[in-house]
Amino acid sequence: MGLGEIYNYLFVELSVPYTREWSLIATPYPLMLIIFMYIYFVLYAGPRYMKNRPPYELRTFILIYDVIQILANLWFVKEHISAGWSTDVAFNGIFYMNHCVTHSKLPLNMIKLFDMVWWLGFLKLFDFVETCIFVLRKKQNQVSGLHVYHHVSNLTFLWYYLKYSLDERATFISLFNCAVHVIMYIYYFIAGWSPDLQQLISPVKPFITKLQMVQFIVMIAVIVPPILNPNCELQRGIAVIFIGNLLVFLYLFNDFYKKSYTSKQKNK
């Protein structure tokens, strides 16, 4: 089998027909180029450019960035709900542990959800701006391996979902994720407005980390039952990898929480 046949098998025959020709989804090259440029800038080009320069303040830019994140994530939450995730049947179906709910039993507007997830990919691209802000403010310590991997893996899993999966049950995960991001960026916006406000709402900061950990637990709770059910139509390989990814994040966020908040309380 030649390289052309291998490529055709991996990226055409195995892909979902509905999204096969979609922009940025048809081939992996745009994704690979974007990720390469992101990693190159935040780990090499950006720090090198800032080496002999003072840090940029970017306060107004950051506040605008936070507002865009709030509004965009709110819009995606609204679109998820209008596509069917507001119904009791949908929520009962996704959390019903005794059997695997088939696609046809969920009252969801599949076309609307899949199109929306494609647009959600641009929001995940916009998330990369956060890392660039860290670099330009010379806060390179915040550009951790976990931070970079988190953004890269989010975009990669989303691309895989659109290319090979298109299971509307998984859109509950994006709904929950967007809802969490609304709360997160409201906090970031208020904290970034002034040092006084940041100090005032500082007790909320541990809650934000807890909320993110709850998010990972809920996502795992949604994915595990279908994996364990042999009668469930599911791409188990990628689902198991995704759960492993969530478990790593859960461990690292929990470790961060203990070091940042629990240890400080003990030292008081």
Task: Characterize the structure shown.
This protein is mostly helical and 268 residues long. The protein has one domain (3-266). Helix content is 75%, strand content 0%. The chain contains eleven helices and no strands. The protein has helices spanning 3-13, 29-50, 59-85, 88-95, 110-126, 128-136, 145-165, 171-193, 195-200, 205-228, 236-267. The longest helix is centred in the last third of the chain and has 32 residues, at 236-267. It is found in: Membrane.
Quickly count the domains: 1
**Helix fraction bin:** over 70%
Mean pLDDT: 86
Please tell me what the overall shape is: globular
Give the tally of β-strands.
Answer: 0
Cα-atom radius of gyration: 20 Å
N-to-C terminal Cα separation, in Å? 66 Å
Structural class designation: mainly alpha
Task: Please outline the major beta sheet.
Answer: none
Low-pLDDT segments, ≥5 res: 101-105
Number of helices: 11
Provide the β-strand percentage band.
under 5%
Main location: membrane
Enzyme class: transferase
GO cellular component, one term: endoplasmic reticulum membrane
Keywords: Fatty acid biosynthesis, Fatty acid metabolism, Lipid biosynthesis, Lipid metabolism, Membrane, Transferase, Transmembrane, Transmembrane helix
Concise synopsis of the structure shown:
The chain has 268 residues and is mainly α.
Descriptive tags:
lipid metabolism, 0% strand, mainly alpha, ELO_fam, fatty acid elongase activity
Draw up the topology in text.
Blueprint: H1 3-13, H2 29-50, H3 59-85, H4 88-95, H5 110-126, H6 128-136, H7 145-165, H8 171-193, H9 195-200, H10 205-228, H11 236-267
